[in-house]
Structures are given as C-alpha cells and as structure tokens.
Amino acid sequence: MRLDRFLSGQTAGSRRDAVQAIRHGAVAVNGIAVRDPAKHIDPETDAVTMQGKEIRYETQRYFLMHKPAGVITASRDSKQKTVLDLLKPEDHFPDIAPVGRLDMDTAGLLLLTDDGKLAHRLISPAHHIPKYYMVWLRDPFAEAVIPQFRAGIFLREGDSEEQCLPAECVKLDDRIALLELREGKYHQVKRMFAAAGNHVEHLLRVQFGGLFLPPDLPKNAYTQIFQKEINILCGDSSIFEIAPKCMYNYSSYWINETE
Ligand code: URA
C-alpha cells in the first residue's frame, strides 16, 4: 500500500495532508524518515510513525463517545440531532453505527463502530457485558432496593410483568446510586427505580464492560480506541471497584450540565 494512502486511511487527515507531512519529513517507516508519498509499505509488518507517534493499522473503527443529553442514539433522523451528527466528516466511515442505545435524556459512554461482529456480540443478551449507570434520584436512596434488584425486580409490561436479571446496586450518596446491568430492556434503569417507588432524574452511563467514560472527555467529544481497549471492554469488571471512583469523577456532572 502507498504510504500516503495508508496515512490518510489511518489518521483524521486527508490524502493531501498525508503527502505534506511525508514531504516535510514528519513520517518514518521502521525508524527511517521517508519523504516519498508513493513509497510502498506493508501495513501489517512495517512500523509507521508520524511526528514520533505510532500510526497503527486498523481496518475497523471504534469510537468512544461522550454522548450528551438531548441527542438521539440513531444513525439518522430527519428532525433530531443524532450521535452520528457529532462525528467529524472524516470519521463518517461506511457502516459506522452506535452499539446499543441510550435514551435521548441519558448522557455518558457510547461506543460507535463499523465492526458489526463486535457490535452484535456486545449487545447480545447471551454475553451479558455489564453496563454501569450513575443514577440521580428524586427521593433518597432506599437500601431495600439492593436485595430487590439482586433478586431480579419485576417490571410491568402492559398487563403482564417481566423479570429483570439480577442486578447489583450501590449507594453513592443520599440521592445517587450506581447500577450494574447485564441486559438492556427498554428504559430499564428508569423502570427499575420506578418499580421500587423512586424516580430517576438523571442518568449517566459511566462504564461499558471494562471501559469507563474518560472524566476529561468533554461532552459531544469522542476518541478513537484500538484493539487493546476492545479487549478491556469485553473483559470482566466489578461494581464494587467502580463505585469509589464515580463520585470523584462524575458527581458534579448534572450540576455543570444545567449551568
Ligand atoms: N436505562 C434507561 O432507562 N435509559 C437508558 O438510556 C439506558 C438504560
């Protein structure tokens, strides 16, 4: 593959940007500066750097987005702003789509990818990838919800009821909880707390599998992640390890949101 084509495919810049960077001597292949944009490289084995930074060869894209409230989780919509509208034009790869969905008024971590196989695996109920939600409640957190959620709370569905999978919940503050879900029913967090007699005022997804919402990632922004992080995403995690970090990282979230 030509070096300029490799670079424009693997970075946010255009082909012209890649050519310029190469001509200016900013690009090295296997440690040696290369000034010929047409130089042929093997993306699988050659190590390419730009301004000293490694450019890894990725055939699929994974973006970790900080979804704000007020944006819908869909690929396109004729009226509402969607999470895909938050992507830069150069990141609109064919088939890129959100993995699962967050309600319009829910904020937090959202993965977007064009890796359909991974997306399928992540949302498949069989894999039970845990998702963690920080929940701001209208009424004080009642310890009684912990055993209720752990036993699998029943949600009303028209005339019938459906039981949730056992879920762990931790009190973070008087009106703030952290909930771990291993499934994704419609409005599940809101309905679980409603079934327990409380009301969810705000919802922030702070973690998906082993990947957490970077506290310094601004709302609307996203960052590209790579295979290594995908492995973390699919790895194991525990609510009891996550809980202590949440208040420090995100407790002011909705205070700032309404400023
Ligand atoms: N549960 C909800 O109620 N809303 C979300 O967006 C995600 C989980």
Written account of the structure:
With 259 residues, the chain is of the alpha+beta class. The protein folds into two domains: 3-54, Roll (Structural Genomics Hypothetical 15.5 Kd Protein In mrcA-pckA Intergenic Region, Chain A); 62-250, Pseudouridine synthase (2-Layer Sandwich). 25% of the residues lie in helices and 26% in strands. Strands 5, 6, 7, 8, 11, 12, 13, 14 and 15 form a nine-stranded mixed beta sheet that branches. A four-stranded antiparallel beta sheet has the order 2-1-3-4. A two-stranded antiparallel sheet has the order 9-10. A hairpin with a 2-residue loop joins β11 and β12 (176-181). α1 crosses α2 (15-23). The longest helix is centred in the C-terminal third of the chain and has 12 residues, at 239-250. The radius of gyration is 22 Å and the shape is elongated. The protein starts with a helix and ends with a helix. 30% of the residues are buried. Uracil binds at residues 102-103, 106, 187-190, 203.
DSSP strand tally = 15
Q: What is the count of structural domains?
A: 2
- Please tell me the CATH architecture of the largest domain by its name: 2-Layer Sandwich
Q: What are the distinct ligands in this entry?
A: uracil
Radius of gyration: 22 Å
The H/E string reads: HHEEEEEEEHEHEEEEHEEEHHH
- Overall mean pLDDT stands at 92
